[in-house]
Design brief:
Layout lengths: L3 H12 L3 E6 L6 H13 L4 E4 L9 H11 L4 E3 L13 E7 L5 H17 L3 E9 L7 H6 L9 H13 L4 E5 L10 H8 L6 E4 L5 H10 L3 E4 L1 H5 L3 H10 L6
Helix pairs in contact: 2-3, 6-7, 7-8, 8-10
């Protein structure tokens, strides 16, 4: 097991370069769709492909990952909603701990159960402090986790949560408004959180246009993740990627 994926993300942060990831829900793709996404993401110079969701009701995660790897050279990172969403065929796994909630099962409980299988998978494991921020609409992750999101106007709570996650050893901090959020994270919250941590900051949820992706990067996000908007309009992949990669390097 290497740290190639994480080291790449960290190196880009150090160099002031931004990254763009497309989130693929295994329940919403078939072979044809995977082929189309592979071609679009390659042409757009997408940095990473995240695979997963809060609920995966189909039983073909392995098949989806294998197909993506066959069609694409872009690194595949698992974004699991539950411990069962693990495929050894991916490149890395975001080992998510829901640090914004108070549900012990999603802080450490499910990790204890999944640890032997995850370790045996041979995947690169990236410990990730996962923070759900109120996006103006109920989300699957909030319902499943039985945990309230951080209010969108409480910058101090977000800042302290991110700092705590980093000091506990989390390699990434992931702030998410959730799939289908009515509003994305505010640039003000992103800027405040980015200012108090050294770990790479991942931002997702409610990002529906290239301008918002650009502004989030300018505010301090190191990696932008978009899923729902691209499911509705795959042509946005090129525009979103171009916007993220056009952010001036700032060391």
């Amino acid at each position: 097991m290497t740290n190639r994926i994480y080291q790449g993300i960290a190196a880009k942060k150090k160099e002031g370069r931004k990254s763009f990831a497309v989130l693929i829900d295994p329940d919403k793709v078939n072979e044809q769709k995977i082929g189309e996404l592979a071609a679009l993401t390659a042409a757009a110079n997408v940095d990473y492909l995240l695979v997963g969701g809060s609920l995966v009701i189909s039983n073909h995660l392995d098949e989806v990952v294998i197909r993506i790897k066959r069609e694409s050279n872009i690194p595949v990172i698992l974004f699991p909603g539950t411990p069962s969403q693990v495929s050894r065929h991916a490149d890395a796994l975001l080992y998510l701990s829901l640090i914004s909630g108070r549900n012990p099962e999603l802080l450490i409980g499910q990790h204890v159960i999944s640890a032997p299988f995850v370790k045996q998978s041979g995947l690169e494991i990236i410990s990730t402090g996962y923070m759900v921020i109120d996006g103006g609409a109920p989300t699957t992750v909030s319902y499943i986790s039985n945990a309230a999101p951080i209010p969108s106007d409480k910058n101090e709570i977000a800042m302290c949560t991110a700092m705590a996650g980093e000091m506990l050893g989390m390699k990434l901090i992931y702030m998410d408004a959730g799939s289908g959020a009515r509003r994305a994270l505010s640039e003000n919250m992103i800027e405040n959180v980015a200012g108090v941590i050294a770990a790479p900051l991942v931002v997702g949820g409610g990002i529906t246009d290239p301008e918002k992706a650009y502004r989030n990067c300018k505010a301090g996000a190191d990696l932008i993740v978009v899923g729902n908007a691209i499911e509705k309009d795959p042509s946005l992949i090129r525009e979103m990627s171009a916007a993220v990669h056009s952010v001036p390097v700032c060391l």
